[in-house]
Specification:
Blueprint (H helix, E strand, L loop, with lengths): L1 H11 L6 E4 L10 H10 L4 E6 H7 L1 H8 L10 E10 H9 L16 H8 L5 E2 L1
Parallel strand pairs: 2-4
Antiparallel strand pairs: 1-3, 2-3
Helix pairs in contact: 1-5, 3-4
Length: 129
C-alpha cells in the first residue's frame, strides 16, 4: 500500500495526468488506449471492482474481521477490491492526502481493502466495475 501511495504521489506531480491505473503483470489491455481515453472523456469517474464488507464476510470471515477491527473505519463503508484499479485525479489526491496506512497495519492483504475503504470512508464511492 505504501509503495502504491508513493507511486500515486509521484504521478500526481505531473499535472497533465488525469487518471492513474494500477495493473498487474497478468493484465493485458484488450482494447486500444485511444478507446480507453475516449471512454474516460465521456465518464471520468474512478473504476474499482469491489465487494461490500457483508459480502466478503460470507466468503472470508477472518479477512472481514480484520477490517472490522480497524479503529476509525465504519464497518458499513469497509470494502474489498481487486488489486487493479483506475483512479481519477480527485480520488488519487484524496487517497494520498488521507494516509490511513497505520490503521491497516494488522490487516492481511491490505491492498485488497485499503484504497476502496479509504474512498468510501471519505464519501467518494467510485464506479464499480
Amino acid at each position: 500500500v505504501r509503495a502504491t501511495l508513493a507511486l500515486l504521489q509521484e504521478a500526481l506531480a505531473e499535472e497533465s495526468n488525469s487518471h492513474f491505473m494500477l495493473l498487474s503483470e497478468s493484465c493485458v489491455p484488450v482494447r486500444p488506449f485511444s478507446e480507453l481515453a475516449r471512454s474516460l472523456r465521456c465518464d471520468p469517474r474512478s473504476r474499482i471492482r469491489f465487494e461490500p464488507w457483508a459480502e466478503m464476510r460470507k466468503r472470508d470471515i477472518l479477512k472481514a474481521q480484520r477490517v472490522q477491527e480497524i479503529e476509525g473505519i465504519r464497518k458499513e463503508v469497509a470494502c474489498f477490491q481487486h488489486q487493479w484499479m483506475l483512479l481519477n485525479r480527485a480520488d488519487a489526491e484524496a487517497i494520498v492526502a488521507n494516509d490511513l496506512t497505520p490503521a491497516f497495519a494488522k490487516v492481511d492483504c491490505a491492498d485488497e481493502s485499503y484504497f476502496i475503504t479509504v474512498l468510501a470512508q471519505l464519501g467518494r464511492a467510485p464506479m464499480q466495475t
